[in-house]
């Protein structure tokens, strides 16, 4: 487990080193925050830093760093590198700037912030991506928990009405509607910190349970190759599959929720970068479990692939049983069920706020909140119950979510780089990961089966997709440098005047 512990130490140390550098580059000060200036008692509410950290962690976690990490473990221990360095240099930067730029701009949603720094066209793209992504996330994080609850009940011998995925899906959607509609401090601010602690305890239980039960995590240096049973290329499928836990555009839609609750800008590193590091650690633990628990055949993770074929509910339940036994599985399953639910409701809440910023409808009055909640849940319900009745595949929804998610992360990082360029600061800390994610998303788009890979000649065709990815990343970086030069000319003109 030496590889695992090295990666774990890097993640912990990054908060005190690179996270501090990112924070210093941004330059938090003592200006009045939106939570203090606006304070509408609904979305703008001052909360303590420790509570915001736990709420932020729950908001961004969901099934992503658990199921995504297990899926990423199909490629073997090489996924440790993406989780670790993705979190430090991309995910932490992404989450910090999405939160702090929102805070600097009256707590606006990420789509509106993008419009400020990248222009109207990017604003419109981000509005579309954000709303679609949020509703998809809310749906995925309703269907997933419903399946997990039923899995737990069936294992315990429960049958009948309450062993139905459809029933639990209806219950979860009803809760989502209430949590999306009422003030953020009524449910989210009060009980989410407790669930955050459960999530952390669950991850610790899995981590400790691996060696105590005789499971050995394979070392990175002895398994530095593609272990995926289907031979799926590492680049860029692994970087899309493992989003939460490395870098995730969904987080950019969640960070403004806590940006509206900061009492001081100086809380930003703890709340945003810190929560991302915590999520990276959770993802690392679950990836380690995926690499450790299942039989490797012919150098490939065939055992893990077989476990995942039974569904994410069964796979997660299996990990919990094998690492903690029957005594710890209840706590673990509560954590795994609560995680996505607490991300799902804030996804729909963020969708409401994104639409309110877009359309210009104040959310202080209940009737105005209803105007946006109802259409959001109508679409989410159609997707969710459609999957429940076999009209849609959960895996298909997840794949489209994953690609949209990383495309949103790419745009958010370019937004952060633009802000730093305007402020005459080191924009490379955001521009480099932005260019990297540009290559990731464009490569995936060309060869993925749900994108251009629908064309047989392009499906998994690395000879075409890899060069396209490199060219697109260079193109984006070239456009950005032109943008930087234009900013410098404008700043020079202002100084001359």
Automatic annotation (TrEMBL):
Pfam families linked: CstA
Membrane topology: Multi-pass membrane protein
Residues annotated as domain CstA N-terminal: 4-207, 303-442
Keywords linked to the UniProt accession: Cell membrane, Membrane, Transmembrane, Transmembrane helix
GO CC list: plasma membrane
GO biological process terms on file: cellular response to starvation
Compartments in which it is found: Cell membrane
Cross-referenced InterPro entries: CstA, CstA_N
Primary location group: membrane
Family as reported in the entry's similarity comment: Belongs to the peptide transporter carbon starvation (CstA) (TC 2.A.114) family.
Name of this protein: Carbon starvation protein CstA
PANTHER family from the UniProt entry: CARBON STARVATION (PTHR30252:SF4), INNER MEMBRANE PEPTIDE TRANSPORTER (PTHR30252)
Transmembrane residue ranges: 74-97, 128-150, 162-184, 191-212, 232-250, 270-289, 327-351, 372-394, 400-420, 427-447, 463-481
Organism: Pseudoramibacter alactolyticus ATCC 23263
């Amino acid at each position: 487990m030496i590889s695992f512990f090295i990666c774990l130490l890097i993640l912990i140390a990054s908060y005190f080193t690179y996270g501090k550098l990112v924070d210093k580059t941004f330059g938090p000060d003592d200006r009045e925050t939106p939570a203090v200036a606006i304070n509408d008692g609904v979305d703008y509410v001052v909360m303590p830093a420790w509570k915001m950290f736990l709420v932020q962690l729950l908001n961004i976690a969901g099934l992503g760093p658990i199921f995504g990490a297990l899926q990423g473990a199909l490629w073997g221990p090489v996924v440790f590198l993406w989780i670790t360095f993705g979190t430090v240099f991309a995910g932490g930067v992404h989450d910090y700037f999405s939160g702090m730029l929102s805070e600097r701009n009256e707590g606006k949603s990420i789509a509106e912030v993008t419009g400020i720094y990248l222009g109207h066209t990017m604003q419109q793209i981000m509005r579309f991506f954000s709303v679609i992504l949020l509703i998809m996330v809310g749906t995925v994080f309703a269907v997933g928990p419903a399946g997990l609850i039923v899995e737990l009940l069936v294992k315990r011998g429960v049958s009948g009405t309450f062993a139905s995925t459809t029933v639990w899906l209806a219950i979860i959607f009803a809760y989502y509607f209430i949590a999306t509609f009422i003030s953020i401090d009524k449910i989210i601010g009060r009980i989410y910190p407790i669930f955050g602690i459960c999530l952390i305890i669950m991850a610790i239980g899995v981590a400790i349970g691996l060696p105590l039960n005789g499971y050995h995590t394979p070392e990175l240096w002895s398994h530095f190759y593609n272990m995926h049973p289907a031979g799926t290329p590492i680049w860029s499928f692994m970087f899309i599959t493992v989003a939460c836990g490395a870098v995730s555009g969904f987080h950019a839609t969640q960070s403004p929720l806590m940006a509206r609750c900061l009492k001081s800008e100086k809380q930003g590193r703890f709340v945003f970068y810190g929560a991302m590091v915590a999520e990276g650690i959770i993802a690392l633990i679950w990836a380690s479990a995926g690499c450790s628990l299942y039989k490797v055949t012919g150098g490939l993770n065939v055992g893990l692939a077989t476990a995942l074929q039974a569904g994410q509910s069964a796979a997660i339940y299996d990990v919990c049983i094998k690492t903690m036994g029957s005594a710890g599985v209840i706590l673990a399953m509560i954590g795994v069920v609560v995680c996505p639910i607490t991300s799902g409701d804030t996804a729909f809440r963020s969708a409401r706020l994104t639409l309110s910023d877009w359309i210009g409808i104040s959310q202080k009055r209940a009737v105005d909140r209803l105007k946006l909640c109802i259409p959001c849940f109508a679409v989410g319900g159609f997707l969710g119950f459609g999957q429940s009745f076999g009209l849609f595949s959960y895996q298909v929804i997840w794949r489209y979510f994953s690609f949209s998610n990383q495309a949103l992360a790419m745009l958010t990082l370019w937004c952060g780089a633009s802000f730093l360029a305007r402020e005459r600061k080191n924009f490379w800390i955001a521009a480099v990961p932005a260019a990297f994610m540009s290559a990731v998303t464009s490569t995936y788009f060309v060869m993925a089966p749900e994108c251009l890979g629908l064309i047989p000649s392009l499906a998994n065709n690395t000879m075409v997709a890899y060069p396209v990815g490199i060219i697109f990343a260079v193109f984006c970086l070239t456009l950005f440098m032109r943008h930087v030069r234009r900013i410098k000319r404008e700043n020079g003109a202002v100084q001359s005047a």
